[in-house]
From TrEMBL:
Keyword Hydrolase: yes
Name the record gives this protein: S41 family peptidase
Similarity-based family: Belongs to the peptidase S41A family.
UniProt region (Disordered), positions on chain: 401-423
Domain PDZ: 102-170
């Protein structure tokens, strides 16, 4: 298998972007982007001459705007806006990244940022703690779910939107910040915390029922491949035997790091191509093949997809579908089949530019088309009806016993409500679980 170097940190990835394969990706507001490689230097003699007439027009327009616009505009603002326009008109995923956007990109793909470790929401105009994250400054300081954050460093939060509050709580690691909290309608009190490195996991794994596992990937970050490997290992350890089935949930996953998508697919494949990329320049053409190791032990697999599954999610889904490794269930995916390269510039800025298209093992480009599921299952609202007053034979007085032995099975009276399970109110997930159970029965497991 042609491996990219394992990324130990996003900082390293950024450092080696020039002239080396880059496995990184996109943004929070649009489907994320597997990145490729930076363009190789071309022969200067082969470059076409500069379009002098167009450059003269550009200079003239800039002078006219500076002279005639209703308010003064400085050269820096005009030039930055010109660069943004140049990139944004190429395609929806190429962009000029200012310092804040570039930092957000790094945090998004690495899953690490400087913060307090609080999940927040907004309630009645106030910022409310939804949950403190374990082993973070917030949890160690005793902040509790339901606390209202009424001030941040003395500035009232009422009327602020959630993103404004989050931006104020994030920042430089080690820097102290004071939150004013109200708990259960009591008297406001201050808590001073120091920002620390917060790690957000992109993989959630649990057993739905005995023998049936569930892995949800929210985004493909640098460590996602390793997290999926650990989840599979834990399933093997906890289950004590080979599982009957596994559901891989890629719904509403906007994508992310190309290398992580390859690693996740490789956990379920033992041979063959995973994905390849093709671009205009030579070093944008890459091929990734599966390693013989099988972390999933060939467990029957259902992959959930929908219109929010994009980019790196489609790489994984396409590879598993083409290799006949899993059954895709849900609805058509987003259809983002392009690859972006992130090129750092000076002053903490960067270009994110489309350099290639990716293709599934069978040579499919899913750009603007998406991946079709093997079994279409649309979202639906699940409601459980109460059991009627039905009686069984075992309820009847004087009924005959079972000659084959075993206890009678009378009607079970409804008692306390059972603990809610993910599949109880998720129709697509429940259908995936039912399919796995059917496969298990027919295979004699």
């Amino acid at each position: 298998m042609l491996h990219l170097s394992r990324l130990t940190s996003l900082a390293l990835a950024i450092a080696i972007v020039i002239g080396a394969p880059l496995a990184q990706a996109a943004e929070k507001t649009a489907p994320a982007t597997p990145a490729a490689v930076s363009p190789a230097k071309t022969n200067a003699a082969a470059k076409p001459p500069l379009p002098l007439d167009e450059l003269r027009t550009f200079a003239e327009v800039m002078d006219r705007v500076k002279a005639a616009y209703v308010e003064p505009v400085d050269d820096k603002t005009l030039l930055e806006n010109a660069i943004k326009g140049m990139l944004s008109n190429l395609d929806p995923h190429s962009a000029y990244l200012g310092p804040e956007d570039f930092q957000e990109l790094q945090e998004s793909t690495s899953g690490e940022f400087g913060g307090l470790g609080i999940e927040v929401g907004v309630e009645d105009g106030f910022v409310k703690v939804v949950s403190p994250i374990d082993d973070t400054p917030a949890s160690k300081a005793g902040i509790e779910a339901g606390d209202l954050i009424v001030k941040i460093n003395g500035t009232p939060t009422q009327g602020q939107n959630m993103q404004e509050a989050v931006d104020k709580m994030r920042g430089k690691i080690g820097e102290k910040i004071t939150l004013t909290l109200v708990r259960d309608g009591g008297t406001p009190f201050d808590v001073t915390l120091a920002r620390a490195t917060i790690q957000v996991k992109s993989v959630k794994a649990q057993m739905l029922e005995n023998g049936y596992g569930y892995i949800r990937i929210t985004q493909f970050q640098v460590k996602t491949g390793d997290e999926v490997g650990k989840a599979l290992a834990k399933f093997r350890k906890d289950n004590g035997k080979k599982m009957n089935g596994l559901i891989l949930d890629l719904r509403n996953n906007p994508g992310g790091v190309l290398q992580s998508a390859v690693q996740v697919a490789d956990h379920f494949l033992t041979k063959g191509l995973i994905v390849y990329t093709k671009g205009r320049i030579a070093n944008s053409e890459l091929r990734f093949s599966a390693d013989p190791a099988d972390a999933s032990e060939g467990v029957p697999l259902v992959v959930l997809i929908n219109g929010g599954s994009a980019s790196a999610s489609e790489i994984v889904a396409g590879a598993l579908q083409d290799q006949k490794r899993g059954i895709l269930m849900g609805t058509d995916t987003f259809g983002k089949g392009s690859v972006q390269t992130v090129l750092p510039l000076n002053n903490d800025r960067a270009l994110k530019i489309t350099t290639a298209l990716y293709y599934t093992p069978n040579g499919r480009s899913i750009q603007a088309q998406g991946i079709n599921p093997d079994i279409v299952v649309r979202r639906a609202k699940v409601t459980n009806e109460a059991d009627g007053e039905n009686y069984k034979e075992a309820d009847l007085l004087g009924h005959l016993g079972n000659g084959n032995g075993g206890a009678d099975k009378p009607t079970v009276k409804s008692g306390a409500a059972a603990k809610a399970r993910p599949q109880d109110d998720d129709f697509q997930l429940s259908q995936a679980l039912s399919l796995l159970k059917g496969l298990s029965i027919t295979r004699g497991n």
